[in-house]
Amino acid sequence: MASHAIPAAPTLFDRRLLRARQSRAFKQGPVTFLLDRVAEDMAERLAAVKRDFAKAADIWTPGDALRKPLADRLKSFTHLDVLGDPQEVLPLQQEAFDLVVSALALQFVNDLPGVLAQIRRALKPDGLLLAAMIGGDTLNELRQCFAAAEAELEGGVSPRVAPFADLRDLGSLLQRAGLALPVTDVDRVVVRYDSAFALMADIRRMGASNILVERRRTPTRRATMLRMAQLYAKRFADADGRIRATFDVVWLSGWAPHESQQRPLKPGSATASLAEAVKKTKP
Questions:
Q1: What is the model's pLDDT at position 200?
Q2: Which domains does the chain have, with CATH numbers?
Q3: Which of 73, 118, 169, 211 is the most exposed place for a label (fewest CB within 10 A)?
Q4: Which residues pair with 13 in a beta bridge?
């Protein structure tokens, strides 16, 4: 019988470079306004879940941003640092955790279905995954302006901003990983800057600058950078001259299956037909 190997996930991100970029940002003084917002929001979301979480794992959140906001809810907190793992292997025991969290890290994963499956195995039955990642239309303005400047001055476009996961795709990935009751939503944050260069400086100090494997390896021409900034100011500036930058924070949650959870009805198990329901609503 012929065997069919599962194709490996494409390598989009250089995770060793991610380690270097995050380490550099930490040494220079990181920009954390987005991460701080996510940490506060995560604490509020968990506060709405009326159950106890004794043992939690934090998957690759930069620094220690989640430990303090979640300390009151947890007896044990294990933090996995991206600086220690370029291979996307989670050193977590099976069914060991009541809760797995992650903040602004999963957008840099090459094999997201594989990582979600590892998280699913690490959760106890009825354990919760709650994560926030960059997605959607994040930095769409910067992407457009770089593409236009390069097409105009260099006759081609190089990849600069990572492809981000779509909200609907993430819901499907949660189900594919075996997580029940999947929920996704998005928090759109619009930040204003004096210039495109100020935005790019913040991105560097977030440790989030370009780590695409297919990125251009030579410095961008000065004329291209200036043209990009001009286009940005023309297309995405407010009346006071400051530019807008969009960050979409995509939230995802799912539960390790448990017999106590709600389940959808089996096909054909309804006790009343749709036609009967419609008749009852007619005057």
A1: 94
A2: 15-142+161-221+246-281 (3.40.50.150)
A3: 169
A4: 212
